[in-house]
Structures are given as structure tokens and as C-alpha cells.
Design a protein that fits this description.
CATH superfamily of the largest domain in chain B: Response regulator
Largest interface: A-B, 39 and 36 residues
Oligomer: heterodimer
Strand content of chain B: 15-25%
Structural class of chain A: mainly alpha
Helix content of chain A: over 70%
Largest sheet of chain A: 2 strands, antiparallel
Shape of chain A: globular
CATH architecture of chain A: Orthogonal Bundle
Low-confidence stretches of chain B: none
CATH class of chain A: Mainly Alpha
Order of helices and strands of chain B: HEHEHEHEEHEHEHEHEHHEHHHEEH
CATH topology of chain A: ABC transporter involved in vitamin B12 uptake, BtuC
CATH architecture of the largest domain in chain B: 3-Layer(aba) Sandwich
Number of helices of chain A: 11
Helix content of chain B: 40-55%
Order of helices and strands of chain A: HHHHEEHHHHHHH
Strand content of chain A: under 5%
Radius of gyration of chain A: 19 Å
Distance between the termini of chain B: 74 Å
Chain lengths: 291, 423
């Protein structure tokens, strides 16, 4: 009985780490720029594909390929920001939605055209390996993903709090006009924020590749949960996204076991709505952030 | 203002150029609609079915086509069941199709068939399993593959007749778990598997559905661990079945026998995703039968089709969907349509109902005779059947029925620890 609960808790926390990792980039972008990137799932898909091709063609280990993906996605983030996001920053919300949804559709179908619909799996020995501790099973790749998620959250937290650029980002997030008046180059900050968010999701893709197969619509499997977690955790809060991810992972696993796996969405939406009733801006969000 | 109008007129001109259909080459063709999931979560399965249908069309075209004209397809994309309805409407009302082949995915086929029956268009279904598809008395649809009722009954029978003795467990003591994806496909098969197993005296300890889009199935696996089944029966799509099996390894959940339904486990994707771990897994589906068991015509068709699959699509081992797509389409293009004389739905229906093919003329060993209107399963190919196959030494071999078996069933499956030692 205890064994079962402990195992469920471990599974839930590790799953939550996966969810959290995907949501971190999204919440950073939303917090600073107030843009909901509907193509977030497709960036994940792209990162997973790159990891796959590096593995398949050159034998690069997925975890090592993250080192390559990070600078690549930084540049990608800057490019997308310049070409698609910058022009619509002050546009009505509906234009923003159209732009990123459009990007999502284009990316999905470009991937379908280029790489076909086949499921691409990466088979590495550690992909299904586990660590057994007194009868409990801990999945190794998920543990790594969890550890890196914590590292990113802490890293970003320190970056935003202590460094000058980090403070500039926070200032822009709090009030872009005031930040501009204070001499902060908000345009550059937006580039940085979007690029950082994209790097986060790039890392997520590399970590996910040993766990799940890659195919053009894989992003859609994760993106809804990512949005829920971003709002649940408080839009713009990294720690909130992390805690939100853990919460959703635990709710999903426990309700899946004790009640019904088919109803998992019901339960985490119930939790989601309950939390929003008591804390409308999310677990760690600040009031009035959403405009 | 002027630059605005110039830009606007450029845009209008450009789009109207795209919209004006380019004049087709004057050659007349036989236009047939094709409704499949070309994009979306089932795009892979749709593509494989499409490849099968195409090979059949190529083979018929090289024989002079139908009534001397080449076959040409007008595609409809059934990304979701909703778009299945919209695309069926478009093919019929806008493109004027009188005959549609395809299907795949019970939920999409079910939805589209409402439209095809309404407009009295023949729907030539290659693969869609849900029983209800042919239980509505619809007379314009013809389904080639076996329905869910068949799957459920045959799987239960196999567990009772073959798996139980191999495991050395009496059927009354055998613990069976049934898991399935939760749309029409998985649910209809599972809903038959359970009563059939119980009728044969076996205990169904778990019957659970899950979403094919799930990212984590560990709660399901923990439920199964608690129930301690001997045999696990699964009905899912490619992605979720692979995820389940991988997570079984991850969570160290051992099964004595693992038996899937339909195309999924037999596909090369399963081998690619699981490697040596695929060995010992069973599936009920189709394969190119041993040519020795076929008639000369069956052998010739098999040899040519397999060669073309390799040449055109680089598929050395066509999977279940490739094969069934091919067979159903081949029956239509080579036998039924030439007999019908035209695409007129009534003529096609008449030829379809008269069509009678023995099993040994078919490269997958399946005969064809459609149930007539008035029959409780009107539109169903009554000769549809499937064979149990097992991955052995990274090859898929037929193990049942004995008439076409190529090897003996190897059970029980080794545990994950044993597999590690076997490497």
C-alpha cells in the first residue's frame, strides 16, 4: 500500500518534471512579452526531430545534442521574434493568435512534407533503463529530465534576480513603458526573452527524444498541458510553472491509478479550476499581470 | 492609398491564378475518391493504406486501366472525424465522386459513411474495424477487413486454445487483462473480447481504456501490476502501443503473453522502436501468405505486388495496412469495376455483390464475398479472417491457424531481466 503510493508519487513527480520543462519556456515568453506562443509544441517537435537526425545520421547521443541545440534554438528564437513576433507585439490579440497558430500549422505541415508521418524512435540503452531502490522503480531518463528541469528553473531564477540583464527583463515584464523610460532597450529584451524561451523548449526536446517517438504532430500531445501549467503556475512565474507541472503530474498519476486513466484530464482541470477560484492569478502569479 | 490598391490587386491576381485549375491532359481517366487520414495523428497509418491502394492502381493501370482508362484519385483528408464528414461531402457534392475507397480509423469511417450512404455513393472500405459500421443495414458500403466482433472472438479463442496450454495454465485459472485505446476501434474490440473470454471460462481481471494521445501510461501499468494478469490483450494504435510496451520495460512489468489486435504490432515501426524486445509479442493481423498455399493466380499477384512495394516505396516487408489496402483495392480495380462497366453506384453494387473470390487467389490468403442487403452484416466481407503472428528473431512469422503456420508459438515471454541476460 505504502509502496504503491510511493511509486505513484515518484512517477507523478518525474512526469511533472517533464511537463514543467516544456512549460518553462512558454511562461517566460508570456511573462515578458504577453504573447502566447501557440507554436510552442511545434518548437518542441522541431527540437525532437533535430535530436533524432543527429542521432540517426551521426550517432550523436541525445543528451549531448542538447549542447548543439541550445545555440541553434537561440538563433531560431531571435529569427522568429524578428520575423513573426515583433510586428504583432502591439497588434490586437486576435492578430497575435492568428500569427502563432499560423506558424504552428506551417511548422507541422512542413515537417510532414519533409520527414513524412513515420514515427521516429531513438533507441538508446538508457532510454528505458531504471534505478531500483528498495522495490521502487525510478526511470533514469525521466530522472535526468527532472534534474535538468530543476537546474533550469534555478538557473533562470538566479539569472533574473541577480544579474543586470535579468533585472532588465523583469522590469520589462512589469511595465514595458517604464522600463523604456529607464533606458532599457526593450526591443533587445524581447529578443532575449523569446530566444531564452525557445532554448528552454529546445532542451526539453532533446531530453524527451529518448522517451517518446517523434512525428509531426507530437507537439499537440504536450501543448495543452503546457498551457494549463503556465496559467496554473502564474503566467510569467518560472517557479510557478515548475510547481504547477509537478502538481499536474501527481494529479494525473494518482487519479489515473485510483480512479480512471481515461478521466485524467477531468481531474487536472478540476484542480486547475479550483486553484484559479482561490488564486485567480495562479499559484505564484502577481495580480493584474494579464492585460 | 495607391500603393495599397496596387498591393491588393497583386494579391487578388496571384490568388486567382492559383485558383484557376490548370487544364488537365486531355486523356480521360476514371476518377475515384480516396478518403484517408493523410495528415494528423493517424497520418502514418493513412500513408500505408494509401501506398497499398496505389500499388493496386498501378498494377491495373499497367494492364490497360479500367475500361481502357487510367485510374485517378481525388483525395480527401480525414485528419479528424469531423473533417472526415466535411471531406466526404466535398468529394461527393463538389468533386462529383460516385465511388470512394479508403476508410481507416473506425471513428472517421463511421462518420464519413453517414455521408456516403446519404448520397448513395459506394464507399469501398479497405480497413476499418468497428462492428457497427456494417450493422446499420447500409447498402452502399463494402468493408473488406474483419469486424471487431471477429477480432474479439478470435483473440479469446486463441488465448483459450493456444496460449493457456503453452503457459501450462488451465483456462479457468488464467488471468486476462484487456487494455484498449478509448475510441471506436479499441472499445468495440475490447467490448467483445471481455464476454468472449468469460464465456470460455477465463477471468478478466482488468478491462481499461486509455487515450491514444496519452503521454504517460504508468498509472495503467501500476493497475495491471496490482491485478497480476498472465496475459495482456491490447487494442491500440502505433504510438500508444509502443509507449505502453516501453513503459512496461521501464516499470519492470512482466507479462507472460502480450497479444495485440490488427496492424500495429506487426508493423516495422514496432520492431524499430523496440528492437529485440519485440520478440515473443503476438498480433492478430495480416501478412503475405506462404506462396505454396496459393493458386497460380494468387502467387502471380503476390510476386508482382511485393516487387512493386519494394520498387516504388522501398518497402521490403509491407505491413498489414499496406496489404489490406492493396487487396481491397485490387479486388475493386481488377474484378469488380471491369464487371460493373461504369461508376454508376447501382452497377458497382451489383458487381460487388456478385464477386466471389476464393482465399487462395489472394496474396494474403483471404477470400471475398460481401453480405447482401438484408443480411445482419450487410456490406461485410464474410470471408475476412486474420492470422496470429509472432515476432521471432526479429521476424514476423505466422503461427496460427495451423493451415498457414510457419512456426510454433514461443511462450511464455521472457521477463525483462531475462531479456537483458539474453543480449
Amino acid at each position: 500500500m505504502i509502496q504503491t503510493i510511493l511509486q505513484l508519487a515518484i512517477n507523478g513527480i518525474l512526469l511533472g518534471g517533464v511537463y514543467a520543462l516544456i512549460s518553462i519556456g512558454l511562461t517566460l515568453i508570456f511573462g515578458v512579452m504577453n504573447i502566447i506562443n501557440f507554436a510552442h509544441g511545434e518548437f518542441l517537435m522541431l527540437s525532437m526531430y533535430i535530436t533524432f537526425w543527429l542521432f540517426h545520421l551521426y550517432g550523436v547521443d541525445p543528451y549531448l545534442s542538447i549542447l548543439l541545440i541550445m545555440p541553434l534554438f537561440f538563433l531560431l528564437g531571435i529569427f522568429v521574434q524578428r520575423v513573426i513576433i515583433q510586428p504583432i507585439l502591439n497588434a490586437p490579440h486576435i492578430a497575435q493568435i492568428f500569427a502563432t497558430v499560423g506558424l504552428s500549422i506551417v511548422m507541422q505541415n512542413a515537417a510532414l512534407l519533409a520527414w513524412k508521418a513515420d514515427y521516429r524512435s531513438i533507441r538508446v540503452d538508457y532510454g528505458i533503463s531504471n534505478i531500483k531502490v528498495s522495490g521502487l522503480i525510478i526511470s533514469f531518463p525521466r530522472l535526468v529530465t527532472f534534474a535538468i528541469a530543476i537546474a533550469i528553473v534555478m538557473g533562470l531564477f538566479i539569472f533574473l534576480k541577480e544579474t543586470l540583464i535579468g533585472k532588465a527583463i523583469r522590469a520589462t515584464a512589469q511595465n514595458a513603458r517604464a522600463a523604456l523610460l529607464m533606458g532599457i532597450n526593450t526591443k533587445r529584451i524581447y529578443y532575449l526573452a523569446f530566444a531564452l524561451g525557445t532554448v528552454c523548449v529546445g532542451i526539453a526536446g532533446g531530453l524527451l527524444a529518448p522517451l517518446y517517438p517523434t512525428f509531426p504532430t507530437v507537439g499537440s500531445f504536450f501543448v495543452l498541458i503546457a498551457f494549463v501549467i503556465v496559467v496554473l503556475g502564474g503566467m510569467g512565474s518560472m517557479v510557478g510553472a515548475f510547481l504547477g507541472g509537478l502538481l499536474i503530474g501527481i494529479v494525473e498519476v494518482f487519479s489515473g491509478f485510483y480512479i480512471d486513466l481515461a478521466l485524467k484530464e477531468l481531474f487536472y482541470f478540476i484542480v486547475f479550476i479550483s486553484i484559479l477560484i482561490f488564486r485567480p492569478s495562479g499559484l505564484m502569479g502577481k495580480r493584474g499581470l494579464a492585460r | 492609398m495607391r500603393s495599397y490598391f496596387i498591393k491588393l490587386s497583386i494579391v487578388i491576381l496571384a490568388t486567382s491564378f492559383l485558383m484557376v485549375p490548370l487544364p488537365l491532359i486531355a486523356e480521360e481517366t476514371v476518377k475515384i475518391g480516396c478518403l484517408l487520414p493523410f495528415t494528423g495523428p493517424l497520418a502514418l497509418e493513412g500513408k500505408q493504406t494509401w501506398e497499398g491502394i496505389n500499388i493496386a492502381a498501378d498494377m491495373q493501370n499497367d494492364r490497360g486501366g479500367i475500361w481502357g482508362k487510367k485510374i485517378e484519385f481525388v483525395k480527401g483528408d480525414t485528419t479528424t472525424p469531423d473533417s472526415a464528414i466535411a471531406e466526404a461531402e466535398r468529394l461527393i457534392k463538389v468533386d462529383g465522386m460516385k465511388l470512394i475507397v479508403g476508410g481507416y480509423s473506425s471513428s472517421r469511417t463511421m462518420a464519413a459513411s453517414e455521408i456516403t450512404e446519404k448520397y448513395k455513393t459506394v464507399f469501398w472500405i479497405t480497413t476499418a474495424v468497428a462492428g457497427p459500421i456494417t450493422e446499420r443495414g447500409y447498402i452502399y458500403l463494402y468493408r473488406y477487413n474483419a469486424p471487431s466482433g471477429y477480432f474479439g472472438a478470435v483473440k479469446a479463442q486463441f488465448v483459450h486454445d493456444v496460449i493457456a496450454p503453452k503457459l501450462g495454465i488451465k483456462p479457468q485459472d488464467l488471468r486476462v487483462a484487456i487494455i484498449h485505446e478509448d475510441t471506436l476501434w479499441g472499445s468495440t474490440v475490447a467490448d467483445v473480447e471481455q464476454p468472449e473470454c468469460e464465456k470460455l471460462g477465463m477471468k478478466v481481471v482488468v478491462k481499461k481504456g486509455y487515450s491514444a494521445k496519452a503521454v504517460d501510461l504508468s498509472p495503467l501499468i501500476m493497475t495491471l501490476k496490482a491485478a497480476k494478469p498472465d496475459v495482456v490483450l491490447i487494442t491500440g494504435y502505433v504510438n500508444d502501443t509502443n509507449l505502453y510496451y516501453r513503459q512496461c520495460k521501464e516499470q519492470d512489468f512482466n507479462m507472460k503473453a502480450f497479444f495485440g489486435s490488427g496492424a500495429v504490432i506487426g508493423h516495422p515501426e514496432f520492431l524499430e522502436a523496440q528492437g529485440k524486445d519485440a520478440n515473443y509479442v503476438l498480433t492478430l493481423s495480416h501478412k503475405a501468405v506462404d506462396p505454396k498455399r496459393l493458386s497460380p493466380e494468387g502467387r502471380a499477384v503476390q510476386e508482382e505486388a511485393l516487387r512493386r512495394f519494394k520498387e516504388k516505396y522501398e518497402v521490403a516487408n509491407p505491413g498489414s495496412l499496406h496489404l489490406v489496402g492493396f487487396e481491397a483495392a485490387w479486388n475493386l480495380f481488377h474484378y469488380v469495376l471491369p464487371k460493373a462497366g461504369s461508376l454508376d453506384p447501382e452497377a458497382v453494387r451489383k458487381a460487388a455483390l456478385e464477386f466471389d473470390k476464393p482465399y487462395n487467389d489472394s496474396m494474403i490468403g483471404i477470400g471475398c464475398k460481401y453480405a447482401p442487403p438484408g443480411h445482419p452484416k450487410a456490406g461485410q466481407n464474410l470471408r475476412a479472417q486474420m492470422f496470429t503472428q509472432q515476432w521471432q528473431n526479429e521476424k514476423l512469422v505466422a503461427v496460427w491457424p495451423e493451415a498457414i503456420a510457419e512456426a510454433e508459438v514461443m511462450l511464455p515471454m521472457p521477463t525483462w531481466d531475462e531479456r537483458k541476460k539474453m543480449r
